[in-house]
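Long-time lurker, first post. I've been practising inverse folding by hand and with some scripts of my own, and I keep getting stuck on stretches where the C-alpha cells seem ambiguous. Below is the full C-alpha cell string for one chain I'm working on. Before anyone asks, I'm not after the true native sequence, just a reasonable design that respects the backbone. If someone could post their per-position residues I'd love to compare against what I wrote down in my notebook.
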C-alpha cells in the first residue's frame, strides 16, 4: 500500500527535521559535493578541451553558475523545502510531465555524479599500489564508499551535517596547502603554462565550461535540503553564494598548481589522479601521499552529501506523486526507501560503467534541466517571487550556448554519447508521461 500521505504529514516518518542543518553544515554539504566532483574527477577532462587556458574555464563556470543560482535562490527564499528542485519545477509547470521528467533528470545527473566521484575515490585509493587499472578492485572500492555513504546518511541529518563540516574543513585546508606548496616549488613558468596556448577553436573552450558547471552544480544539494536549513528564507541563499565563492577560489588554486607542475598531455594522461601526479615533481612522495589522503577525504564527503541530496529529492518526487514507488516489502518511511534506491543505482553505475564518458551524460542532463528551471521561473513565477527577467534570460542563454557547444564537440569526438543522452532524456519524458496518465486514469483508485 502507498504510505505517501502518512509520510508527508508525519515529519519523523519522512525523515524531515526543520532546522536540523546549520548554515555552516549546509555550506559544508554544498562544497562537499562540488569539490568532490570538480577537482578530482573533472580537471583532466576540462584541461583536455581548454588546453593551458583551463583555469579560465573554472572562472567561466563560476560566472554561469552564479547566474543559474539566481533562480534557485529566489525560489528557495520564497518556498524553502526539502527536494527544492522538484518544488521549483512543480510550481512552474504544475504536477505534469515536464516537472516530473526534468526533476528525474536532475536526480539522475546527481546519481551519475556520485558514481563518478566514487570511481575517483577508488582510483586515488589504489594509485599508491599501482592497481588503479584493475577494474574489479576499482568497482569494489567504489561500492564500499557508496555503502559507507549510506550508513552515514541512515544515521540522521545531524550526522551528515557534522561529518560534512569536519571533512570539508580538512579537505579545503589540505587542498590549499597542496596548491600553495606546489606553486611555490614549480612557479608559474613551467608545466602547461609554458606551452603555447593551443586551441582547436573557441568551441572547445566553451564546451569545457560544461564540465566546469558540472563541477559547481553541487549547490543544488542546498536547495534540495532547504526545508531543513536553519532560517531557510535567509540562509539558503547565503549558503549557495558562500559555497560557490569557496569553490571558485579552491578550484583556481588547484588549477594553477596542476598547470604549473604538469603539461596538458600529462594532465590528460593522469586525469583520474591529476592532483597526486602534480604533487610528485615538486613535493616528492610525501606530497604524493598527502594529496592522495586529501583526495580520499574530499571524494568521501562528496558522495555522502550527494546521497543526502538525491534521496531527499526522490522523496519529494514520491510525495508529490510524480514518480512511481514500491516498498518492495521494506519497512520504514519513503525517505529510508529512497536512500536505499539512491545507493543501489549509484553502486550499480560505479560497478558496471566507465564513468569518464558518463560524466558527459550528466552534463547533458543537468544543462537541459537547468534551462527548464530558468524558463519556468521566467515564464510563470518571476513576478510572484520578484525575480528580474534580464538575469533569468541571461542564465538561460548561457546554458543554451554551452549546451550547443558541448553537443557540437561531442558529435565530433564521441557521437554515441550524444545519442545516448538524447535517448535517455526521451525515455524519461515518455516514461513519466505514461506513468502520470496511468495514475490519473479512471479506475486506478486516485481521486
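-- Answer (accepted) --
I ran through it position by position. Result:
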Amino acid at each position: 500500500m502507498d504510505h505517501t500521505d502518512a509520510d508527508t504529514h508525519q515529519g519523523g516518518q519522512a525523515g524531515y527535521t526543520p532546522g536540523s542543518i546549520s548554515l555552516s553544515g549546509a555550506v559544508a554539504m554544498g562544497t562537499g559535493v562540488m569539490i568532490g566532483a570538480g577537482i578530482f574527477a573533472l580537471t583532466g577532462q576540462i584541461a583536455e578541451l581548454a588546453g593551458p587556458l583551463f583555469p579560465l574555464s573554472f572562472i567561466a563556470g563560476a560566472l554561469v553558475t552564479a547566474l543559474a543560482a539566481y533562480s534557485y535562490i529566489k525560489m528557495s527564499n520564497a518556498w524553502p523545502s526539502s527536494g527544492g528542485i522538484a518544488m521549483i519545477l512543480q510550481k512552474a509547470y504544475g504536477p505534469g510531465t515536464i516537472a516530473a521528467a526534468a526533476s528525474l533528470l536532475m536526480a539522475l545527473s546527481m546519481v551519475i555524479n556520485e558514481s563518478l566521484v566514487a570511481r575517483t575515490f577508488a582510483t586515488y585509493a589504489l594509485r599508491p599500489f599501482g592497481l588503479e587499472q584493475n577494474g574489479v578492485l576499482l568497482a569494489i572500492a567504489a561500492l564500499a564508499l557508496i555503502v559507507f555513504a549510506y550508513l552515514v546518511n541512515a544515521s540522521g541529518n545531524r550526522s551528515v551535517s557534522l561529518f560534512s563540516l569536519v571533512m570539508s574543513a580538512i579537505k579545503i585546508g589540505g587542498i590549499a596547502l597542496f596548491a600553495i606548496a606546489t606553486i611555490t616549488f614549480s612557479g608559474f613558468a613551467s608545466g602547461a603554462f609554458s606551452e603555447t596556448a593551443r586551441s582547436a577553436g573557441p568551441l572547445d573552450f566553451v564546451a569545457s565550461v560544461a564540465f566546469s558547471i558540472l563541477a559547481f552544480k553541487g549547490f543544488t544539494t542546498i536547495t534540495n535540503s532547504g526545508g531543513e536549513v536553519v532560517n531557510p528564507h535567509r540562509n539558503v541563499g547565503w549558503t549557495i553564494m558562500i559555497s560557490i565563492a569557496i569553490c571558485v577560489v579552491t578550484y583556481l588554486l588547484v588549477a594553477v598548481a596542476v598547470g604549473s607542475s604538469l603539461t596538458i598531455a600529462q594532465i590528460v594522461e593522469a586525469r583520474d589522479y591529476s592532483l597526486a601526479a602534480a604533487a610528485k615533481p615538486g613535493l616528492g612522495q610525501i606530497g604524493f601521499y598527502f594529496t592522495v589522503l586529501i583526495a580520499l577525504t574530499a571524494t568521501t564527503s562528496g558522495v555522502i552529501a550527494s546521497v543526502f541530496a538525491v534521496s531527499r529529492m526522490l522523496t519529494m518526487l514520491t510525495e508529490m506523486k510524480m514518480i512511481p514507488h514500491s516498498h518492495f516489502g521494506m519497512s520504514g518511511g519513503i525517505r529510508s526507501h529512497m536512500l536505499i534506491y539512491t545507493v543501489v543505482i549509484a553502486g550499480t553505475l560505479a560497478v558496471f560503467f566507465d564513468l569518464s564518458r558518463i560524466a558527459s551524460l550528466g552534463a547533458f542532463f543537468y544543462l537541459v534541466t537547468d534551462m527548464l528551471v530558468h524558463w519556468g521561473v521566467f515564464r510563470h513565477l518571476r513576478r510572484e517571487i520578484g525575480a528580474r527577467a534580464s538575469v533569468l534570460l541571461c542564465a538561460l542563454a548561457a546554458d543554451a550556448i554551452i549546451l550547443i557547444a558541448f553537443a557540437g564537440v561531442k558529435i565530433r569526438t564521441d557521437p554515441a554519447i550524444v545519442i545516448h543522452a538524447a535517448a535517455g532524456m526521451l525515455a524519461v519524458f515518455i516514461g513519466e508521461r505514461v506513468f502520470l496518465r496511468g495514475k490519473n486514469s479512471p479506475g486506478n483508485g486516485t481521486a
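A couple of notes from the structure itself: Residues 29 and 305 are 5 Å apart (CA to CA). The radius of gyration is 21 Å. Happy to go over any region you disagree with.
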